[in-house]
Amino acid sequence: MTVSLEDINAAAGIIEGAVVRTPMVRAGALSDRFGANI
Q1: Nearest-10 Cα torsion for 29, 30, 32, 33
Q2: How far apart are CA 36 and CA 31, in angstroms?
Q3: In degrees to the nearest 10, what's the CA dihedral of 21, 22, 28, 29?
Q4: Which end of the chain is more exposed for a tag (fewer CB within 10 A), N or C?
Q5: How far is CA 35 from CA 3, 6, 23, 31, in A?
Q6: Would residue 4 be called left, alpha or beta, if left means φ above 0 and alpha means ψ between -120 and 50 degrees?
Q7: Model confidence at 4: pLDDT above 90
Q8: What is this structure's pTM?
Q9: Within the chain, where are the H helices?
Q10: d(Cα 27, Cα 34) in Å, to the nearest integer?
Q11: In whole angstroms, how far apart are CA 3 and each of 14, 18, 22, 35?
């Protein structure tokens, strides 16, 4: 299996997008879940 530069860039973009979105989702879920306690 050969991996082209385009494949690497596409995968990096997907990973970067997931990393950026995930903390926001987690923070939102945590604040909603523990909002009454904090």
Answers
A1: 110
A2: 9
A3: 150
A4: N
A5: 46, 43, 17, 5
A6: beta
A7: yes
A8: 0.45
A9: 5-34
A10: 10
A11: 16, 21, 27, 46
Query: Tokens standing for 3?
Result: 């991996």
Which distant-in-sequence residues (6+ apart) come within 8 Å of 38 by Cβ? 31
d(CA 2, CA 11): 14
Please give the structure tokens belonging to residue 11: 């995968």
Look up residue 26 and give its two tokens: 């987690």
Cα separation values, 23 from 6, 9, 19, 37, Å: 27, 22, 7, 20
Number of residues written out for the chain: 38
